[in-house]
Amino acid sequence: MVVVGAGYAGLSAARNLVDAGLDVVVLEARGRVGGRVWSETTRAGALVDHGGQWIGPGQHHLQGWADDLGVTTFPTFGDGANVEIREGRRHLFTGLVPTSDREGSADAVAALLELDLLAHEVAPGEPWTHPDAIALDRRTLGDWVVSEVGSAAARAMITTATLGVFGAEPCELSLLYALAYAHGGGSMSALLRTAGGAQERRFHGGAQQMAVRVAEALGDRVVLDAPVSSVRHGPGRVSVTADRVTPDGHRRPWRVDADRVVVAIPPATQGRIAFDPPLPGRRDQLVQRSPMGSVTKIHAVYERPFWRDEGLSGQVVADTGALRLVFDDSPDDASHGVLMGFLAGHEDRILDGSGTAGRAAVALAELAAAFGPVAGSPIEVVEQHWSAEPFTRGGPVACLGPGVLTGCGPALREPVGPVHWAGTETATAWSGYIDGAISSGLRAADEVTAALGRPVRQGA
Amino acid sequence: MATADELAEAYGDWRGRCNANPRLAKMLRGWDRTVHLVTSDTGEGYTLSVAGSVLGELRSGLVGAPDLVVTATSEDFTDLFWGDLNPSEKYLNGEIVLAGSSEDVMRLDAMSMVAFLDQ
Lengths: 460, 119
Hints:
B: alpha+beta
């Protein structure tokens, strides 16, 4: 078996294929495992998660990995008042929604409920089966917001929420896709929350370590620095070619023959692999129409979380500017203070040409506006500009526009001969999250073992 | 700790405001439910019904099979009904607990937040 990609999806597939007694090679393009989940200790000694970092209620697959590997979690810090930046002015609020414009917030809460009630009618794994799927898929989330949400303040709040969840503007997302995505994680309201929601807890030691430990257990089955360039496939046989880095630093084509391949990378990167014979038209169209969100994660590191002294949670919600959402990302022992902000959607693309220094300057000015001048002078700023990262090409997830799910959705998980598909985008629950990646790997491994006539794991 | 009379008086005020709020009437459309309120400090139970987008009177005792059960202290219930308490803070802290189907919890959660914001 070959698995393409050593993110959580690929490692999950590999782990289960090995458990089924199959020979497995995992080809990973980067020099590390974890995919969109990457923890790094900065020069100042702060551990930061450049990508996926949270776990929340209902994420049983990820919790299972954490329990198996003895990795513990701690609550995302949220004590105290949150900062709201609205029309350039700073306000404080406690609880879930800003209170500076109560009418606007009430409008936003009512709209989110409407959205969540609609979402509950959509099957996350196969949204194209909804009786009104075509109509829902013709509209964008932005169209819905314009027609259903009365106040400008509420529309701005939903836009900020969308940027945080998808790394995309509401006008870029099919309404059907947004509804299915929300229902896959419970509700849009749940996706936005810290306590009781998708951002509830973080991992001691970072979110990547479970991937690292699973890869260690897989040993030399995991081959790093081996981006796959082509997949030749025929009935019951595949040849996968990677440009593997040789000991002398050169890249040489390296072919692995196998019975089956599990492709566990984002659709946008699948388009860079040459499939021979070419993929069926609908599958290829799906790949072409699944662009990644645009996101940069910026961490500002301080000696200590000074904002907590002022009774602030470190969380910011903004209706304008570059950083629309900020969290306290300090370690559990508060040995450093860390503020983490998302640059997302249009703002991320606008600031692409500004470079790391330019984005940091914009981010620090906005942090200083939210937390005072001290926030503008951290001991270190680090960023991960996912939009320019060649092996994910954006983040946090593929963002499907109108017509894609109803036109191409059924091809999402459908194997093409011996080629199977995994990755969080293929998950039927928690798509876009680490949990969805793990479950997608399990499902793909089950498909492979079933196709080979091997016993499928208990409970599958 | 709030007395039963204080809680009932606060509920009466909240009910009047909610039933006069067109946004809430829209949110409650088609959502006919029985809700039990349980006070964690005094161990008392109350029942309210939602029917035809209208909140009914508060009845003493746990009457009928509930679709939702809300548990909080008598003081938190009273403060929430007077509009002095941000319900989302109490949900986040786990000091107000909602039990029911995910859709019913979502509805009541949103409704109580709108009632708080729209006063």
